[in-house]
# Entry
Amino acid sequence: MRFTKDHEYVRVEGAVATVGISDYAQQQLGDVVFVELPKVGAKFDKGAAAAVVESVKAASDIYSPASGEVVAVNDVVQKETTLINEDAQGRGWLFQLKLADPSEVDGLMDEAAYAEYLKTIA
# Structure
């Protein structure tokens, strides 16, 4: 699993990346009440706004951690937004991308580097 400084995670299996928000991000947001997911077939460049997560505190854009095409969305989280709070880095995933350039993920933080990054912003 890799992480961005904007607190998205990406888990790569083959040429497909599963994207969501980190456990830290969901804790900061509080109770998630609404999720807007991208459409299957949408294409994003790395860093482009791809989804929106709204909580009782704020609305946050979710940025694509890599370039690619959306091949699946997690419709369940739109109906059961609490999944993001309960299991952000598991069942609360948001969308899957077919990576245009899998090497883009290599530049993201691994779990140890992300943990160190969190210490600098806490």
The beta strands are 2-3, 8-13, 16-21, 32-36, 43-44, 49-55, 59-63, 68-73, 95-99. The longest strand covers residues 49-55.
